[in-house]
Amino acid sequence: MKTFNMDELIAYCNQYGFIFQGSEIYGGLANTWDYGPLGCRLKNNLKDAWRFYFIQRRENSYELDADILMNPMVWKASGHLDGFSDPLLDCKECKARHRADNLINSFDETANADAMTQQEMLEFIKDKRIPCPVCGKSNFTDIRQFNLMFATKRGVTDDSSNTVYLRPENAQGEYVNFQNVQRTMRTKLPFSIGQIGKAFRNEITPGNFTFRTIEFEQMEYQTFCKKGDDESLYDYFKEYGKEFFEYLGLASEHLRYHDHEKLAHYAKAACDIEYLFPFGWGEINGTHNRTDFDLARHQEYTGKTMEYFDAENNERYIPYVIESTYGLDRLVLAVLFENLVEEDLEGGDTRVVLKIKPFLAPIKLNVLPLIKKRHAEKSKELHQMLSKYMMVSYDEAGNIGKRYRRGDAIGTPFAITIDDATLENNTVTVRERDSMEQVTVSVSELIPYLIERL
Ligand code: GAP
Q1: Which among 369, 365, 390 is positioned nearest to 381, based on CA atoms?
Q2: What CATH number is given to the structural domain containing 385?
Q3: Range of the domain at 380
Q4: Which has the closest alpha carbon to 193: 66, 45, 327?
Q5: pLDDT by residue (tens digit) across 330-363?
Q6: First and final CA of the chain: distance in angstroms?
Q7: Which atom of ligand 1 is nearest to the CA of 212?
Q8: pTM above 0.85, yes or no
Q9: Are 273 and 284 in contact (CB under 8 A)?
């Protein structure tokens, strides 16, 4: 059995309609990717799984859909305008632009650029004469902080007072609506607000396909609690995140925790869950103890109270926030790497199969007439009937073996074949993707049979 490397996965995604290069016919735009029909299905199934795990299964848990554009003062208060930046330097020889911390970490695996100041990074690069990865020379400019937020203008005048930002994280939408949700849902602490939505960052470093992009989707989850309950909730969400990934089918040996030494400006503690991608360990989730930082700042900048009234103890306080955040695009990538294999079959043949959990599969069932002329009509009738219950595809082109293989390659857990027996006694052959076993099932039993196994 063979797993896929990055180039093979990119080719697979393009061949089967999961992910295409963004603006492909114009030569693309760096670090942008478009999700095709199967990629959309997979993404939506992951969103549904997150909703089930975080919104439906947990008590006092509410979903929100806040706008991407927010009042720019939000980003002043949150600290993103002043502090959300990367340390960049340019090669004076070839003009290539690099992140100083990446230069250091990839030159010396034992060095920890995250723990260095800007001055320490510059001295390290000079002392070790770290070469430019593009031209090999070691002649760099000073380090400058480069803000990652995309700015745009609203209105008709090109005036700096009209500058608005594409949000770099979902979280602020949840913070500024904390009281709206608390009031309308009549809920008590601890309660949570989750949101799925796009975020934007002007990343200059190479992306590793969809791992690092300039536009991406986050599934963020903020739990508001009383100070003192924050540390146990932080530990709880670290565990819950790993449990969620295992529920999605990521193997525990491909997951690890990475506690942060250098913390974001808002955090008292932070830990990532990393997945073992073919290019190495990469963050797919973060748990952050954001204390009362964000709410207190919004109170300070708006003059509006962000306090919660604790009726049981007759006290008012600004809640602490534990954030549990998931990168949806990175999760799609991890799920594809985890499940995509090329398998050896008897007789020296091979097949590509995406052994994804059935509830995540883009298509649940493939309906196949054995002989197009004789069985297409009945097959189309069954396709119509079954598509009320699940995502079903219909395929009548090519020999049956090839049609099975295409379904395997995109992870379709079941195929049904319609043949003369269907016309005579209303039974179909159901083939299962992983075992390739086939059983005969009566059409009247088909829906419960499939739903139980999906
Ligand atoms: N609200 C906190 C926050 O945004 P983060 O660690 O910067 O924290 C959260 O981002 C998640 O978003 C990460 O764990 C990662 O999965 C995903 N993510 C961050 N930057 C990304 C990028 N440039 N491309 C794709 N996904 C990204």
Answers
A1: 369
A2: 3.40.50.800
A3: 363-453
A4: 66
A5: 999 999 999 999 999 988 999 999 999 999 999 9
A6: 25
A7: 24
A8: yes
A9: yes
